[in-house]
Amino acid sequence: MKKHNLNIILCGTGTVGGTLLEQMAEQQAMLREQQGLNLQVVGVVDIFNLMMNADGIDLGAFRTADGVFSMDLFREAFKAAPASSIDRIHDEVLAMQLDDMVFVDCTASYEVAALYQDFLDRSISIVCANKVAASGDLNAYLKLKDTAVKNGVKYHFETNVGAGLPLINTINALRATGDRIVRLEAVLSGTLNFIFNTISADIPFSKAVQMAKEARFSEPDPRIDLMGLDVVRKLVILARESGCMISQDDVEKRLFVPDEYFEGTLDDFWAKLPDLDAHFESLRQEVEAAGQHLRFVAKLDEGKASVSLEKVDAAHPAYNLEGSNNIILLHTARYTPHPMVIQGYGAGAGVTAAGVFADIMAIANCGY
């Protein structure tokens, strides 16, 4: 069996990054034995600390007595690692000079996303859960994609939309085989879907938002979800991958929380949020009486993009979405009049980390 190395630098040790490190630690031996892949973690970094070893970090050193990798043990050692900064991450990664390197970004940082171009320029592949680059400046996004192709490396960001669901890869495959995305309609926020599935006569809107944060479905700052920014970013990414080169300003936004709730500090937001409970209880009663459900829907129709809170009835495919699930309906030149439908968990550390892991494995399976 031909063996090869893949050298991983993980940026971000939070919920998704930590879960990904656990998953990689548990799969290393199997991948080595069954696929001849030495999945070698040569760096773990964040804005506070930086642990680098060109020969590989021994993840086996952080196992408990029963042989299970412990993120708690790793974090304890990581805190003692040298201090980090964006500039140091940039310099240390480039100084590695290893073959088959993959920089894995599990942050939501603008500063980290700004490093991608330099890394791709040096033939370092990028895998990211971070949505900033793919949804940001259009020219910068196109340059990242072009650089990856030119240098024979990969820029994968499947988990930017739908966590572990194969949305971007499916769109890319459809277009590569000559199909055309005519229209798409999607519920793309696991957080918002959880919230609107959770509110009830006993659970007000503000409590449902708090529950989404405690369940780690929401962004660290839930205002990003409630102001629709997360869904707008996701829709822009899907639109671009569908061949429609739009920016966030091009998306028509019909939002459901007044702008004043996003002013001030995060503490201010939490203090004001219960003021919305009466409005959402009235709305909940209205849609319940009509046999409908609330869904925050993203649409792309012949180049026109929009997001809005909609009332859907039992005939709509998103009506029965449970928990934090996502759904996307792809109307294409081939999939008509009935669209391709993809749905499943759209939030959560486990499925998101697994989606990032799958992007890493897609690079490994290319065999360079």
Question: TL;DR?
Answer:
The protein is an alpha/beta fold and 368 residues long.
Question: Could you characterize the architecture of this molecule?
Answer:
- There is one protein chain.
- The strands form two sheets. The protein has a six-stranded mixed beta sheet, with helices on both faces. The protein has a six-stranded mixed beta sheet with strand order 8-10-9-7-11-12.
- β9 and β10 (304-312) form a beta hairpin.
- By secondary structure, it is α/β, with parallel strands linked by helices.
- It is 41% helix and 20% strand.
Secondary-structure blueprint:
Elements (H helix, E strand, L loop, with lengths): L3 E8 L3 H21 L1 E9 L4 E3 L18 H8 L7 H11 L4 E5 L4 H4 L2 H6 L3 E4 L3 H4 L2 H14 L3 E2 L10 H10 L4 E7 L2 H9 L6 H10 L8 H4 L2 H13 L10 E3 L11 H7 L4 H13 L3 E9 L2 E9 L12 E8 L7 E6 L3 H18 L2
Parallel strand pairs: 1-2, 1-4, 4-5, 5-6, 8-10
Antiparallel strand pairs: 2-3, 7-9, 7-11, 9-10, 11-12
Helix pairs in contact: 1-15, 9-10
